[in-house]
Amino acid sequence: MSPEDVQNHPDHRRIPIQKVGIKNITYPIIVKDKKNKIQHTIARFSMYVNLPHHFKGTHMSRFIEILNDYRQAIEMRNISNILAKMKKKLNAESAQVEIEFPYFIEKKAPVSRAKSLMEYTCRFIGSINRDQETKLIVGIDVPITTLCPCSKAISEKGAHNQRSRVSVHLHTKNFFWIEDIILLIEEAASSPVYSLLKRRDEKFVTEQAYENPMFVEDIVRSIAEKLGAGQNITWFSVEAENMESIHNHNAYAMVEKDGIEGMRE
């Protein structure tokens, strides 16, 4: 005798559920890498489908089965396949997936050329509706250095600077490399951040930041200008947050390009 399938029992409260599934499961994955072709990393997944009012529950184990099927090739181009499989296997009208993972790039110090790995946080946020329309957002968090223009202008010696975090989310027509967006963001900063710096490197980046003072407003406008220059990106948001070194608050700015309504609901 087969075990009773309680999830398929009817529910008489007539309340549909917009999102039901699994949240914050950690899983090893392989992602595309511009330099090395692939990169092994660890991702945190959240996977949801809608549940019609007449079903008591969904089949949680099926989310894990789908995750296991695709863990060897998680990339922008196959998120739509993952979503379609979720929708079909769970008999749902809509599906959503959120994937967040650390991504590592080998980076050379600016003067000594010493090599080290730099970590960036990346995410894929995808959804599919009843009409099979798929939306995909790629998010990238990049640490940078900013130096305050006001502090530089009023100080006889030095200027205060801080580590900042830029968070960019994109919707595009075609595939792009994560590395290219990271470079674009770092080039808009007072200075990039590095994992390994020798003394002559520290001198270089300190002086580089001093010569390139930036408010958070300057950062988001500069990045937005570059992202909006091409035809591939149809929607984006850019956020910058300075972890202020002399204030008891953070400075923040955000720019969004309209184009896809409700992309980050």
Can you give a write-up of this model?
This protein is of the alpha+beta class and 265 residues long. The protein has a single domain (12-257), classed as Urate Oxidase (Roll). It is 24% helix and 40% strand. It has helices spanning 60-70, 79-89, 149-154, 178-187, 199-211, 216-227; strands spanning 17-33, 37-51, 95-108, 115-128, 134-147, 161-172, 191-192, 233-242, 251-257. Strands 1, 2, 3, 4, 5, 6, 7, 8 and 9 form a nine-stranded antiparallel beta sheet that branches. Helix 1 packs antiparallel against helix 2 (79-89). 26% of the residues are buried.
Keywords:
about 260 residues; alpha+beta; Urate Oxidase; 6 helices; about 40% strand; elongated
Percentage of residues in helical conformation? 10-25%
Rounded average pLDDT:
90
Oligomer: single chain
| CATH-assigned fold name | Urate Oxidase
By CATH, the architecture is named Roll
Question: What layout of secondary structure does this protein have?
Answer:
Blueprint lengths: L16 E17 L3 E15 L8 H11 L8 H11 L5 E14 L6 E14 L5 E14 L1 H6 L6 E12 L5 H10 L3 E2 L6 H13 L4 H12 L5 E10 L8 E7 L8
Antiparallel strand pairs: 1-2, 2-3, 3-4, 4-5, 5-6, 5-7, 6-8, 8-9
